[in-house]
Amino acid sequence: MAENKTQPNQVPVEEFLNAVEHPTRRADGFELLNMMRELTGQEAVMWGPTIVGFGKYHYKYASGREGDSAAVGFSPRKTNLALYGLTMGPEADRLLPELGKHKTGASCLYVNKLDDVDRDVLAELIRTGYRHTMTEIHKP
Question: Assign residue 41 a region: left if phi > 0, alpha if psi is -120 to 50, beta otherwise?
């Protein structure tokens, strides 16, 4: 079975965030760094070249595929902020309508900028997404 392409690495998170060209995404990235660090109790780690992750969980699919991933994280992209692990918990369906302007993908939440969303709701999504991933999805 092939190894995951997105692996943790030693690139300093602050170095990555300082290199983000878009000033709003850079500032939002630092705010998310502090918010996720505080809410998860974990230090940030770069996963691949563009994902800032917090915590690590192991997953196993029925197909036999397994691997490790960040429990929650984000990536400041050119067009938006991609947030990972926040839509997986059972509370997400209740919280997302209260969040503000956003889009969702397979397991991602996309926002243009943090000023578009309610930060208290975002904090609850981070908290519950992290807890769900580490207690329900994590398969040591």
Answer: left
Residue 5 in contact with residue 61, Cβ under 8 Å? no
- As a whole number of Å, the end-to-end CA separation of the chain is 18
How far apart, in whole angstroms, are the C-alpha atoms of residue 25 and residue 28?
A: 5
Strand partners, 74: 52, 83
Secondary structure class of 81 (helix, strand, coil) = strand
Helix (H/G/I), strand (E/B), else coil: 109? strand
Residue type, 18: N
Q: What is the pLDDT of residues 83-120, one digit of tens each?
A: 999 998 899 999 999 999 999 998 899 999 999 999 99
